[in-house]
Every structure is written in C-alpha cells, then in structure tokens.
Automatic annotation (TrEMBL):
Annotated PANTHER family: GNAT FAMILY, PUTATIVE (AFU_ORTHOLOGUE AFUA_3G00765)-RELATED-RELATED (PTHR43792), N-ACETYLTRANSFERASE DOMAIN-CONTAINING PROTEIN (PTHR43792:SF1)
PROSITE patterns reported for this sequence: GNAT (PS51186)
Transmembrane segments: none
Entry protein name: GNAT family N-acetyltransferase
Source organism per UniProt: Billgrantia bachuensis
Domain N-acetyltransferase: 23-177
C-alpha cells in the first residue's frame, strides 16, 4: 500500500486531481518530443487529458495503479510530470514522464528512486522493473542513476506509435531486494 503523497528534497508526489488535466495539457501531453517513446499519441484536445486523469483517479480508488503527479515542493498546484507504480504480484512496474523544460535536472531520478524504495519496503514486493525503448537514452540513463540493472533486450516488445506502427525492441531494467 503506497501513500497518497510523498515528499522528497525538491519534490512533492501526490494523488492526481481533475484540475491537473489543464496543466498537463499545457505542459506536456501535447508535446511530440515528450511523447516520442511513449505508448500513447500526443493529445489533441483537453478532453483526452481529462479522460486520462479520470482513469488515474479510478486506479487510485481500485488500488490497481498508483499514478503520482510530480510537482516542485511549495508549488503543489503546478504538475511538472508523473510517475506511476503498477503492482503485479511480487513485482512493481514503473512508468514516468516529465515536462521538457524540466529535463536534465535530476528531477525524475529523485522521484523514481524514492518511489522505488517505498515499493521495495513493502513486504510483498521483491522487484521493481521498467522497460524503455532501446533508443530512449534519457530513460536508460535515468534508470542507471537509480541503480536499476539492465537485464536484457526484449525484441518486438512494445508499441511506440509515435516512432513506428510496428512493435519495437525495449531494454528491461530492474532493481530487486
Ligand atoms: C526520461 C526522463 C523522465 C528523464 O528525466 P530527467 O529528470 O530529465 O532525468 P535526468 O535529469 O537524470 O536526465 C537523464 C538523461 O536525460 C538526457 N537529457 C538531459 N537533458 C536533456 C535535454 N534537455 N534534452 C534531451 N535529453 C536530455 C541526458 O542523457 C541525461 O543523462 P545524463 O545526466 O547522464 O546526461 C525525461 O527525459 C522524459 O520525461 N522523457 C520523455 C518521457 C519518456 O521517455 N519517459 C520514459 C518512457 S520509458
């Protein structure tokens, strides 16, 4: 069971709110660079981001996924990204995204490292994993900084529709206890 909010040195991770949708739409859900290696296409209308946030609220209610809004501490109204934990039995799968203007400042390593430790502190969780497109160098670097090990290359593993209509190869990373 993960908490509704987590504070790190520079960041707040918190449960999403419907009002986050307009911020996310303005900052990154429409951005082709941000969504390049993701499994979804850039949003064209605010209603798409609103529908996505609605699925996040439902996920929190059902405890099926734990999607956190990432903000700078002291500015909790302004989302700058998201990080999500998806429990699968004794494992947790991670996903993350950050608005472009905040890249390269070690923000997602700070968020992901903390959430990973929180997951591995749960008695039932032995493994936290993440996959990324083999060309997504920023994501690979982030995972290495968080002490995830690259376990292998999974051929034809994920659809990243902004790059190709065909399934793409991914690296599998994991941190275990
Ligand atoms: C992956 C991502 C979350 C990394 O977050 P971050 O907070 O920028 O992470 P870091 O600051 O540690 O930077 C990681 C790497 O990004 C790259 N990077 C840094 N600034 C960058 C910039 N302005 N433009 C492009 N890449 C940049 C560098 O390779 C950096 O590694 P380095 O520190 O060894 O040079 C972020 O790049 C992002 O949101 N990308 C788009 C969404 C995505 O691909 N999510 C992952 C799906 S698997």
């Amino acid at each position: 069971m993960l908490p509704y909010s987590i504070v790190t040195t520079r960041l707040s991770l918190r449960e999403p709110r419907i009002s986050d949708a307009s911020h996310l739409f303005r900052t990154y859900t429409t951005d082709r660079e941000v969504t390049r290696y993701l499994v979804w296409r850039p949003h064209e209308a605010l209603t798409e981001t609103e529908a996505f946030i609605a699925t996040c609220l439902e996920a929190w209610r059902d405890r099926t996924r734990f999607p956190y809004i990432v903000t700078l501490t002291g500015n909790e109204q302004e989302p700058i990204g998201m990080v999500e934990a998806r429990p699968r039995g004794h494992m947790v799968d991670m996903g993350y995204v950050l608005a472009r203007q905040f890249w390269g400042q070690g923000i997602m390593p700070e968020a992901l490292a903390e959430l990973t430790e929180r997951c591995l502190a749960q008695p039932e969780c032995y493994r936290v994993q993440a996959t990324c497109d083999v060309e997504n160098l920023a994501s690979s670097r982030l995972l290495e900084k968080c002490d995830f090990s690259r376990e292998g290359r999974l051929e034809r593993y994920a659809l990243h529709p902004n790059i190709s209509p065909e399934p793409r190869a991914c690296f599998m990373y994991a941190k275990c206890r």
